[in-house]
Amino acid sequence: MENQKRVIRVSKKAAIFVGILVVLGVIAWTFFVKSQDKIYQTVSVSGVGGGQSVMAPQAEDSSNIAYPDYGRPYYQDNSSAKDTREFMKVYYNTEIKTRDVKDVTRDVKGAIRDADGRIDNINETPKYAYISFVVPKSKFENFKEEIEGLAHEKLVVENTSSENLLGQKQYIEEQEENAKTALADLKKELSDLNASHTQAVKAFQNSINANSLELIRVREAMAKTSDPATLSSLRAQEANLVNSVKSLSENLNSENSTFNIKSQNLKSQIENTEKSLENIAEQDEDFTDNVETVSGSVSVRWVSVWQLAKIFSPIHPIWEILIILAIAWYLLKRKNYVPGIEFV
C-alpha cells in the first residue's frame, strides 16, 4: 500500500519570519568571515636593515594593498626628453592565498635563495607572512615562474612595475662632471701658485744676494779708508743695505708663509674633491647594482575553505548551498522521506 504523503502546514507569517532570520544569519556570517580575515599578529624578524620592524599590510583585497617603496629617487625627476637612455628599475609584489602559510612561506624563501637573491625582512604568523627581498634582474623571470607555481592562478595576484631612473643617473653624472671640473681648477690654481711663488722667491733671493754683495764691498771700502767724510758716506750706505737685506728677508719669509698656507689649503681641497669623486664612483656602482636587481615583496595569506569556495565558485557559495538543499529536499520529498510544506 502506497504511503500517504506527509505535509507540514506552515503559516505565511512564520515562513516570512524564518526567512528574515536566515537573511540576517547570512549577513552576520558574512561580517564574521570578513572580520576574521583582518586579524593578524605581526612578529618582527631581523633583516639586513638592522632588525627594524616592518608591519605587514592588512589582509584586504590585493587592489587595496599599499606596497612598500624600494630605492626610489628622493629628488624630482626633470629629465630632458632629448636623453632617451633607459635605466629601468623593476618592482615586483605578489599576494598568495593558501591554506598552509608555513609551507608556502618556506617555498618563497627557497625561491629567493635559488635566484641568488637577498631577503631583507620577514614578518610571519600562522595565518600571515610578509617577505621583502631583492633578486638579480637576470634571474627574475625564472623566479617569477617559480612563485606563480606555488598556488593556483586564482590564488596569486601579481603586480610588476618599472621606473626609468634616468634622472638619478643624470644627477650622478652632473655631480661627477662638477667634481672633475672643480678638481682641474684646483690643480691649475695650485700649479699657478707654485709658479708664482717660485718666481717671487727667486726675485727676493736675487735682491738679497745683490744687496749682500754690495754690503761686503762697502765694508771692504770702509776698512781701507780713514777719511771721515768717506767713512760717513760708507756707513750710511751700510745702514741702508743692512735695512734692505732685513726687509727683503722678512718679505721672503712672509711669501713662504703665505705660500704654505695657500698651498696646504689647495691640497686639502684637492684631496677632498678626489674623495668626492671616489664617493660618486661608488654611488654610480650602487646605482648600477640597484638597476640590475628587482625589489619586491611577497605576502602569504591564509584562507578558509569558505573563502576558497568564494574564489573558485562562479556564484556565491550561499546560493550554492541553498540550491543543493532545495534539490535535496525536493528529491527526498518525492521519495516521501521528508514531508512537504504547505503555507496557510
UniProtKB/TrEMBL annotation:
Q: Name the UniProt key words of this record, in alphabetical order.
A: Coiled coil, Membrane, Transmembrane, Transmembrane helix
Q: Which residues cross the membrane?
A: 14-32, 311-332
Give the coiled coil ranges. Answer: 169-203
This chain's protein is named DUF4349 domain-containing protein
